[in-house]
Amino acid sequence: MRPNHSPSTAPWHTRNGSVQAAPVDRRRFLIQLGGGLAAAMVGPTGRVWPNTSETASTPRTDPDKQDRVLVVLQMTGGNDGLNTVAPYEDDVYGRSRPTLRLRPSEVHRLADGLGLHPEMKEAARLFHEGRLALVQGVGYPNSDRNHPEAMRDWQTGRVPGVHTPTGWLGRAADLLLQQNPFSLPAVFVGRIEIPFTLRAQTAVVPSLAQYPDVPLPIKNLEKLGLPMAATAADTPLEDFASRSCRQAIQMAEKLQKSAASPSRTEYPRFGLAQDLQVVARLLRAGLGIRIFYVELGGGGLGGFDTHAHQAANHGALLREFSASVAAWAEDLAKDHTLDRVLLMTFSEFGRTVRENGRRGTDHGAAQPIFLVGGRIRPGLIGPAPNLADLDADAPKPQTDFRSLYRTVLQDWLGLKAKTVLGADWPPAPILS
């Protein structure tokens, strides 16, 4: 586990907009859980947060939304939306993809001539159960079709060309930390570099590659150098360090208890499934984490960058997505945890309509966004892509992605979206 770097001591993004994650070991986990919480309570100027969890100037959250959780799934590389949600009856689609087109007999039919990829049977079941929705045609005007720049736009949530040293989820984590200075607002679960979108100004956002192994007896934590005295401290900083370390002990106890509980669901043997199982276990551990981030496709350009031999590669990724997300949703639904969780996907861009000469597709624009949860608006949301009106051979965006961000921030998490996004965006109709 490793917190994100301070903006003053590290470059604000690497080539793919991320900072390096570190492997987890239990000693580092406990030390950084305690020390990281303490560090997060000291502002950039060295001011210590007040002793109360809220002040008059702290942004308040709607009490009904304080236990809601957002899970963001990054599909790295530029997912081909037209073969994910295929317009199988569209003549332009059929003529443009002589080898890649999906036929009516192959897809899992949704409605209005649209069907999910053949490898997405579990996702189709969730759709018909009302636990999965699809927002069609999501993007932004004049979108960048270069991987680092497009990913940076989605990860910052700000307009292109504006230098932004933090990610939109990092800024959300900062707001959550203001409301509860002893909280751990966000976590990345995965095996790639921690994405730039989690870069925060004050919040510590750790990276986990697996569920934390914390078998050390609590009485031995003092040997790790954590200040845990329950008596009155001499200075406010010592007081907060002590409080944060006691909080770390409580978290360690919850993690131990959760680790001892048997798994409720059998997850498939996919990397994404294992990451989502960690998310489910952390949710049930009751650590108060409000934002989780997972990734499919790998680091660098990502596996969804299907310029050649797309059919097999894309199908394998969609199979992993479908089976993993369905197992996770079924797991959380068993005790109604899914009712307070919303999962949202994104990729840096969609793909072109025409396939290229290598049986693949090239960088496009708009894409479909998946939503999974117990309180989403089910079904298809927004108009289907108009393949007769394209932007450089790519579907045009119908819904700005920042409208989705606005809705999940304000209407789901209860945060002031304008504070995070820097502008007012119309809400997207994605919640029931």
Largest sheet: 9 strands, mixed
Tell me the strand percentage band. 5-15%
Q: Compute the gyration radius: what is it?
A: 22 Å
The secondary structure category is alpha/beta
What would you call the shape? Answer: globular
The overall pLDDT, averaged over residues, is: 84
| Overall domain count | 1
Helix content: 25-40%
CATH class: Alpha Beta
pLDDT < 50 stretches: 1-28, 34-59
What is this structure, in a nutshell?
The protein has 432 residues and is an alpha/beta fold. The chain is built from eleven helices and 14 strands.
Topology, element by element:
Layout: E1 18-19, H1 26-40, E2 69-75, H2 81-84, E3 85-86, H3 91-96, E4 108-111, E5 114-116, H4 121-129, E6 132-139, H5 147-156, H6 168-179, E7 186-189, E8 194-195, E9 207-208, H7 236-260, H8 271-285, E10 291-296, H9 310-333, E11 341-346, E12 367-373, E13 379-381, E14 399-400, H10 401-412, H11 417-421
Parallel strand pairs: 2-10, 2-11, 6-13, 6-14, 7-9, 7-10
Antiparallel strand pairs: 1-8, 3-5, 4-5, 6-12, 11-12
Helix pairs in contact: 1-7, 4-9, 7-8, 8-9
